[in-house]
Amino acid sequence: MNPGYISYWLLTIMAILLFTGWWKWLADDVRPRHIAILAAGCILLSNIVVPFDFLNENLGGISLTVCWLGVWSIAILALRPVEGSLQRFYLFFAALLAGIMGGWLRMLYTNDPVLIVMDATADAAILIGLTASLSALSRASLLFGVVTLASIAEPMLVGSLLPASSVKPITIGSLAWWDSYLLAWFTARIVVLIARGTKAVTAKWFTRAAGEGEGGV
């Protein structure tokens, strides 16, 4: 599959959902103007790549678009109202944990490709999304911050731990990275919506069962 193919389809799906009344389900507490500013910055900075090989020869460079996303993510996790400072620390830890999980799977696939389920990049992205969804179920903005930082940390971890002969130089912000990042966010959001739906149905069922029990007494 060509790099960028997954990103194209996921962005198309998200745009259709946003413009057809599904904003609350997809973006939740994120304001439209914030998404517009974020998207504008990503487009303007997309062609600027800063060399990163001075840190590690496996890291070819990092796009300023990713830096833009990273700044937003850190600001959201650091400034967004949460329940106590411990919760804030937990979100940053969750981002690191999700990145480690995705990086671990990528390194496992490098050593034993027979374990690959669909694609090494896609499998790692899905694992990042699943891990992140367990940490920020309440708000889409917090989920965005966790997934973004995890998706930035994952290739850094892989590039730092694997020998140069086993991987190509990684550009954080390439089309392949965007495929992984958007797939991770989409996976995390779907898991959150399924959890919310399950919770709502379960609560409704227990309420109805309790009402029937009281009526039968």
Structure, explained:
Keywords: Membrane, Transmembrane, Transmembrane helix. This protein has 217 residues and is mainly alpha-helical. The protein has one domain. Helix content is 71%, strand content 5%. The chain is built from 8 helices and 3 strands; from the N terminus they run αααββααααβα. Strands 1-2-3 form a 3-stranded mixed beta sheet. Helix 6 crosses helix 8. The longest helix is centred in the last third of the chain and has 42 residues. The relative contact order is 0.15.
Summarize the topology.
Blueprint: H1 5-19, H2 23-26, H3 32-45, E1 49-51, E2 59-63, H4 64-79, H5 85-111, H6 120-133, H7 140-161, E3 170-172, H8 175-216
Helix pairs in contact: 1-8, 3-4, 4-7, 5-6, 5-7, 6-7, 6-8, 7-8
Which segments are poorly predicted (pLDDT under 50) over 5 or more consecutive residues? none
Terminal Cα span: 62 Å
Oligomer: single chain
Sheet with the most strands, sense and barrel status: 3 strands, mixed
Overall average residue pLDDT: 78
Strand content: 5-15%
Count of separate DSSP helical elements: 8
Provide the helix percentage.
over 70%
Overall geometry = globular
Structural class by sheet pairing and helices: mainly alpha
Strand order of the largest sheet: 1-2-3
Based on DSSP secondary structure assignment, what is the total number of beta strands?
A: 3
- Gyration radius over CA: 19 Å
